[in-house]
Amino acid sequence: MKSRILSALIILLFAGQVLFAQNECAPQLITSLFNGKDLSSWEFVLKDQSIDPGTVFSVKNAAIHISGNPFGYMRTKETFDNYKLHLEYSWPTEATNSGVFIHVQQPDAIWPSCFEVQLMAGNAGDFICMGGSDMAERTDKSNIVVKKRAVSNEVAVGEWNTIEVVCKESNIEVFVNGTLQNKASGISLTRGHICLQSEGKDIEFRNIYVSKL
């Protein structure tokens, strides 16, 4: 009887150690894309290459500030696949236009081959199939926009919206403030860079990270 109890305790102890080890490893699956201090993990692409990117993309109060002028984007140096992207964005003065590019391909271009998760005020959650990218939900091939599924649930100017983009194999899901706004399947691009767009006027981003799926 004692030997059975001892064996059971050893099994439970081993199982606890394995669970602890898994929990220890879990934080390593999350990659922060912004440290709240600088933009050292990003590259910059602007339509007007004579402009200093530092005048367009900057860090203020632990958030990324993008002026919107000229058009362009900031791009992760790394590429990603099978991940969940989390970020928060806010319009500091006026609800206007921007976007998040996912599965961005090289070479860099102002409108690269990728999928845009639209952030335009009132339309956050739309897909835009850019540079020849495609998805099954784009049934009208003359139109590159795939509209969001639900009514707009964006918050007011000065408040923070939360975007989560789940990229798994050939599928994408987009959540805006916790609401599923769009789904894509049969996508033509499944890996690439992540970009934050400069398109018109000021926007701010914070708490940007990816979780490996």
Question: How big a fraction of the residues is strand?
Answer: 35-45%
Shape: globular
Radius of gyration: 21 Å
Largest sheet: 8 strands, antiparallel
CATH superfamily of the largest domain: Exo-inulinase, domain 1
Could you tell me the mean pLDDT?
Answer: 90
Briefly characterize the structure.
With 213 residues, the protein is mainly β. The chain has one helix and 15 strands. β12 (171-176) and β13 (179-184) form a beta hairpin.
Overview of this structure, please?
With 213 residues, this protein is mostly beta strands. It is 11% helix and 38% strand. It has 2 domains: 1-30; 33-212, Sandwich (Jelly Rolls), CATH 2.60.120.560. The chain is built from 1 helix and 15 strands. The strands form 2 sheets. Strands 1, 3, 4, 6, 11, 12, 13 and 15 form an 8-stranded antiparallel sheet that branches. It has a 7-stranded antiparallel sheet with strand order 2-5-14-7-8-9-10, with no helix packed on it. The longest helix has 24 residues, at 2-25. The model is unreliable at 8-27 (pLDDT under 50).
